[in-house]
Write a structure and sequence with these properties.
Oligomer: homodimer
Shape of chain A: globular
Order of helices and strands of chain A: EEHEHEHEHEEHEHEHHEHHEEEHHH
Largest interface: A-B, 25 and 25 residues
CATH architecture of chain A: 3-Layer(aba) Sandwich
Helix content of chain A: 25-40%
CATH topology of chain A: UDP-N-acetylmuramoyl-L-alanine:D-glutamate ligase
Number of helices of chain A: 13
CATH class of chain A: Alpha Beta
CATH superfamily of chain A: Ribokinase
Radius of gyration of chain A: 18 Å
Structural class of chain A: alpha/beta
Number of strands of chain A: 13
């Protein structure tokens, strides 16, 4: 087995976030499920944008946020995802490559526009997401750069990838290449409703292809349709390690032989929870890739999540390497 | 004289900001004048973007920030500025109209792309701006909607408007319409280097057409090429009122008969000074349009500026009406 050149390669839906405030009445009026990620078509995307208040645009995408977070921590990272060659695609590519991430996936020259996610942040700092998948639906197995996947210690896949039509195959191809090269495969369950859409597939995937699983409590209990304790005991039958977040209550790291509770890192004021899970995964994966103890992985994860929830958007505002060093 | 329907109408370069961190060495390496607004051509814009780190996109433009701030304070406001019909133009139009601002200027169907400003924020929270004027160069006198200008108590013009070729005429047309309708004309000096480019014109403008002048200390002393005290005495010979900001030292309101010092509103942490002057003007103009005492205008100005420097970008994150009410 060749030495890995990269720490982590992520595969996901390449999305630009459009973030604005809204109150709960707005969510109700527009029939939104608070806290969830809902897929929308272009017409709905347009009408939501028309209804939305003044917004901020920045790169997003769950696995892309994680990979940008890893780069910000000092990791060597790569990303696979599909944008179109358009203004938002340019923004996405700029942000991830200027973070130092290897992003070899070519932009689509035609077809749907670059994916965007309309995120409404309520006064409780909760985010409600409406995703127009756009060019992401054209991610295909051919986009899974074999050399890139083989070059990373860990390949990280977002559950949201089950939504676009060909991405499941891309997902499986990546996992097969990674394991064939002796690498590890990590999966994020992404969203409770995503788990409900693909429960059977995610359970099979966890058993057959996943070494490290990331989820929040609600996603994990949705996966096994049971209570938290039972779900924890089930998940470690399937995977080597599960890192499960519980918001302000911290997180739980479960393996076949241990359960470890990690405290959340308190922040002065939670502004926007967009990217909290993504950045938790970034910190944890950084620790795993650098062979740190699980407790230290959890501490890095909590710190990265703390940085991201103290401002808008799912990409770090402060270099995470500095943020972590200042809190060592 | 008909009763005014709007409080303020602003005219300016319609710009989308692209904001990223940089250190002082980056500014030096790229030959930037720290704290200034420098005009760049498209090739330079592209190379700066390539060199820039991960960024955040949000609507900007000096007068547009002021007008968005006024709307956020609860004012009825309008804006005149030129974007192209493209992705950034859509963002600009969305943000200002969804803030409740009347924005009748049609988008250009061809010609240069929507203007963008590459803003580098250094660790001292100072911002250094590089503006590609793009579609703003096509703002013309015909874009000055006579009914809109006549409908506002105050017309607010940014000094930056002297950079694009036809905007000076638009500027003069607006001032003439406003005064013809018995309205007031306000001018922001915008930037020290902008003052140096158009010193003679700005002095003439101030004497002949301007009722209220907004500037920072450095712009005002550049206008009269003298010390601060002398410049203050000169400016009130030309205009009815000058509101001059001095950063953390607060601001000075000068009229022919009085000088009033206003304290800055302290913030926990200054993140990014982008828009500080623009939002100071927003608060002050709100007070003027609502016939408040100058001291109260200054207090509103300081509060609006305090909100804007506590986060990235020049558009309010918190509704200013609420921000002000919470600090009454």
């Amino acid at each position: 087995m060749q030495a890995a050149e990269l720490d982590v390669v992520g595969i996901g839906n390449a999305i630009v976030d459009i973030i604005a405030h809204a109150d709960d009445a707005f969510l109700d009026r527009h029939g939104m499920q608070k806290g969830a990620m809902t897929l929308v078509d272009e017409a709905r995307a347009e009408s939501l944008y028309d209804a939305m208040g003044p917004a901020v645009q920045l790169s997003g995408g769950s696995a892309a946020n994680t990979i940008a977070g890893l780069a910000s921590l000092g990791a060597r990272a790569g990303y696979i995802g599909k944008v179109r060659q358009d203004a938002l695609g340019r923004i996405f590519r700029h942000d991830i490559t200027s973070a130092g991430v290897d992003f070899p996936t070519p932009s689509a020259q035609d077809g749907p526009a670059t994916a965007r996610c309309f995120i409404f942040v309520t006064p409780d700092a909760q985010r409600t997401m409406n995703t127009f998948l756009g060019a992401s639906v054209n991610l295909s197995p051919a986009d899974v750069d074999e050399d890139l996947v083989r070059s990373a210690k860990i390949i990280y896949l977002e559950g949201y990838l089950y939504d676009p039509p060909h991405a499941q195959q891309a997902f499986h191809r990546a996992a097969t290449i990674a394991h064939g090269a002796g690498r590890k495969v990590a999966l994020s369950l992404s969203d409770r409703f995503c788990v409900e859409r693909y429960r059977a597939q995610f359970r099979e995937l966890a058993s057959l292809h996943v070494d490290y699983l990331f989820a929040n409590e609600s996603e994990l209990t949705a996966l096994y349709e049971t209570d938290f304790e039972t779900a924890l005991s089930r998940v470690v039958e399937a995977v080597d390690l599960a890192a499960v977040t519980r918001g302000a209550a911290g997180s739980v790291i479960a393996t076949k032989s241990s359960i470890t509770n990690i405290h959340a890192v308190p922040v002065d004021r939670v502004i926007d929870t967009t990217g909290a899970g993504d950045l938790f995964a970034a910190g944890f994966l950084f620790g795993l890739a650098r062979d740190r103890a699980h407790v230290e992985c959890g501490r890095l994860a909590s710190l990265a999540a703390a940085e991201i929830i103290s401002h808008y958007g799912g990409r770090p505002e402060t270099p995470l390497k500095d943020y972590v060093a200042a809190r060592a």
